[in-house]
Amino acid sequence: MQATIVEAVNDALHTEMAADDRVVVLGEDVAKSGGVFRATDELLEEFGGDRVVDTPLSEIAIVGGATGLAMYGYRPVAEIQFSGFLPPAFDQLVSNASRIRWRTRGALNAPMVVRMPYGAGVRALEHHSESLEGAYGHIPGLQIVVPSTPHDTKGLLLSAIRDPDPVLFMEPKRIYRSFREEVPEDDYEVPLGEAAVRREGEDVTVVAWGSMMPPTLEAVEEGDVDAEVIDLRTVSPMDAETVVESVKKTGRCVVVHEGPRSIGVGSDVVARINDEALMYLEAPVERVTGFDTPVPLLSMEDYYFPHPPRILDAMERALSV
Amino acid sequence: MSERESNDRSPSATGAGDGGARYLTQDDLEVPTHRIVAPDGSYNAGAVPDLDDEELRDLYRWMVTDRVFCRRMVNIQRRGELGTFGSTRGQEASIVGSASTLEPDDWLFVGRAWTPMFMRGVPMRDMILFWRGIEEGQKSFAEHNSQIAISIGSHLPLAAGVSWGMDLDDGDAVTTAYLGDGATSTGAAHEAINLAGALRLPALFFCQNNQYAISTNFESQTGASTIAQKALAYGIDAIRVDGQDVLAVYDAVSTAKERVRQGEPVFVESVTYRLDAHTTSDDPTRYRDDEEVERWEEDDPIERYRSFLEAEGLWDDIDHDAIVEEIEAEFDEALAAANEFEQRGVEELFAYVYDEMPPELARQLAEFEDLLERRPEMYDYVEQRPKG
Ligand SMILES: Cc1ncc(C[n+]2csc(CCOP(=O)(O)OP(=O)(O)O)c2C)c(N)n1
User: Which parts of the sequence belong to the Transketolase-like pyrimidine-binding domain (chain A) (predicted)?
Assistant: First the structure.
């Protein structure tokens, strides 16, 4: 079938809820209204009110409750309505979900997924536009998955739900419906922790993920650059090997992310390259990122967002040395 | 010994002798709802608050303002001139009754309520700018001691803290936090209200129970039968009021404020209904039926108050159409002013992050300005936004 990213989310949930009756979907407005982005549409009708639950307005209860359900043996898939509302539940991620296995020395685990739309570009209010994968990636024990295509979205979400450890699944809402592609009706997994090479090239490696994939690919096309484009897909734990191997080949690298620059995921990509491919570098690694400022409200949010000209500019800089 | 210390916290001997453990249930609490004007327009004349005719007419005027403003905002949103908007249609009595008690030095933290800011001098233009995602609008909010909280419940600890400061200052002003029924489920709300109860912080928590938090109805939000009763668990007294009755809300909130001014926290639950969608991006037909909406529509707070004004002989002095016209004109002017709001520069993104811009931010700004100069095609990607 041809599906958008948000339809792929919905399809993955239908698939896995049908396959595994331990899967429970919970969150604000996920049941009766099918989620504010319709990601959980028709789940209530198909699987009933025990397995598709409208919770009270409490992110702490959603994430902490999901953790308890998971410890007990269920497979909760929790939705946080917008990523900007995860912070109240940060404590549950840090203090509980990510360390149940560690704390119990493997006796218990938390096989759970917290899904949430993230990123700017949809004209929303304050707190609706953040890209804080860097902050969440800093939590040991938590996996941060960020799909960028409908096909990957379904396969990654199925892997995430089946994974024995907690996954924060960040959905790039700006491209939720911006394109369709073929998504198999049947069950398939895209493995967590593996980057994808979206395009092979010889001259420069460009690393991006989630909402930044379309502008990155556009910049490469527009600049007519022979770039190798890597989609990280899992931000943490990071597949550094794919990045490093590519940089060994191209000798140049640009990292693109929407979140703030400092202490960000891009810094870590640079560090991995320094660790393992420094001697192959022919130019400093460039970073194209959001600014170290709050994401502006909607009238100016498009200035915050790395657009193709900024990405292209960085690629040209990397290539000019 | 203070009153609190005298509270005996050791268990008293309930059911002594008969061996039966007894449940304390919700039914043990009787939670009355304060009302002055009934839905049919009849009213308890003895309970009418002591307001002069002008003030009584003002209540009407402000309720109409709230309604007209929301209608116009929904309309311009549909024309693509706003990002999104949350209407307060149906909640006019709850909003105006409570906000009429505001003094200029009071602090206000709102969830769903915009007109209170107009009542304290915020220009409509700035509210339009806010919903267009232009930060500048919030400057005048702050100048009038007002804030809108988008992260639900996040403002309640702030309100507790500000009222704490007022308490330390022995001031006479009041901090009011508006919140919704949904907000009462957040951790922040529990922790803030508990703090106010424990430290006796003179805050007013004004909860508009409009029956929904997006699609989640009140029954799914909590197992409690009222929100007011929750306050008791925090050691705070509460008033539950009919939020469709502007006089009762005014009365309840003024009564509560007297208590707050004496240094005690108070919780008010105002029972009302959100007639429009949660926001312009919401589709309420997915989760509520027309009959329910019609039932509430029949109990229109503005109409209910009108019956009172008629009975009091005050209606003849009110020219409803003229009021609407005036507000429409005010809105037109505000919209024109918002449309004229100048295009800004990118430095605006970097201002106000810190008191002084750190070198790294200055560098990011300079790099970006340089890029915009060198690659004007950047502007092709900066889509045309709703005006501004
Ligand atoms: C912490 C947080 N979680 C989720 C949201 C998304 N959201 C916006 S409004 C809303 C419902 C609010 O309901 P209520 O508190 O009853 O206020 P109302 O809008 O009905 O006045 C939700 C869930 C949010 N803004 N903040």
Answer: 3-178
Substitution target from A45, A261, A291 for chain B, most B beta carbons within 10 A: A291
Please provide the distance, in angstroms rounded to a whole number, between the alpha carbons at the two ends of chain B.
Answer: 60
CB B168 within 8 Å of CB B161 = no
Phi-psi label, residue B17: left if phi above 0, alpha if psi -120 to 50, beta otherwise: left
Each residue's pLDDT tens digit, B95-112 = 999 999 999 999 999 999
pLDDT at B2: 47
**Which of A85, A123, A291 lies at the smallest CB-CB distance from B151?**
A85
The whole-chain average pLDDT of chain A stands at 97
Query: What's the confidence (pLDDT) of residue B1?
Result: 41
**Which CATH code for domain B26-339?**
3.40.50.970
Please give the ipTM for the structure prediction.
0.95
Q: Does residue B220 have its Cβ closer than 6 Å to ligand 1?
A: no
Residue B282 to residue A36, Cβ atoms within 8 A: yes
C-alpha B279 to ligand 1 mean position (Å): 10
Segments making up each domain of chain A, as ranges: 2-182, 196-320
A287 touches B358 (CB < 8 A): no
pLDDT digits (tens, 9 = 90+) for A111-146: 999 999 999 988 889 999 999 999 999 999 999 999
Q: CATH classification of A2-182 is 3.40.50.970, yes or no?
A: yes
Question: According to CATH, what is the number of the domain A196-320?
Answer: 3.40.50.920
Q: Nearest-CA residue of chain A relative to B344?
A: A300
Name the 3-class secondary structure at A289: strand
Does B183 contact ligand 1 (Cβ within 6 A)? yes
Residue B154: list chain A partners with CB under 8 A. 88
For residue B79, is pLDDT > 80? yes
Read out DSSP for B183-230?
GGGSHHHHHHHHHHHHHT--EEEEEEE-SEETTEEHHHH-SSS-SHHH
Percentage of chain A beyond pLDDT 90 is 98
Among the listed residues B125, B240, B274, B306, the single catalytic one is B274
Best to test chain A binding among B215, B367, B379 (most A CBs inside 10 Å): B215
